Amino acid sequence: MTWRTHLAIGANAVWLTSFTKNPDQSLLVFLPVAMLASLLPDIDAAGDGAKIHYVGGGVLSNFKGIFTGRYFHHRGIMHSVFVSLIFFLIVYLINFFYLNNIYPLLPYVFFLSYISHPLIDGFNTSVGYLYPFNRKKIALFPKLMLSPVKGFTDKILFVIGAFGILLFFLMFAYYYLL
What we know:
InterPro entries: YdjM-like. Keywords: Membrane, Transmembrane, Transmembrane helix. This is Metal-dependent hydrolase. The chain is mostly helical. It has one domain (about 5-175). It is built from 5 helices and no strands. Helix 1 (about 5-10) packs antiparallel against helix 2.
């Protein structure tokens, strides 16, 4: 999927702000966190001679020999459920100890946005969901049904994600600003 699609789908994790006491304040924290988390799994992508097509993508590929090889390759360990849970725990601990738990839903927003990335990548290729315990990459559909990057599925998911964010902001404005 393209970075725009990942961003649009991942940003929908801000719907969790409707469960907070101060949604207007939480939104200022949750939206940037959701946007960052939705793009973070592609930090291991190599450009393969082409320009990186997403914000911040491929940072780890600059450290060839350290972050490449057995586990660190695109759609490998950074797309796994294991790393998603590790990041959830890190964000939970940061929120609890350093932010005094003022954003109790922050780890959940981060997790939902982060995990949305490998899930929708499974629509167009195989992904290492079970790394590092199982190095086999899994696709969500049979090979003949996989959609290419920038294909029809990518465009439909982008529209769904963008519509979800638009609907969120319209409802937010109606309930909290008007």
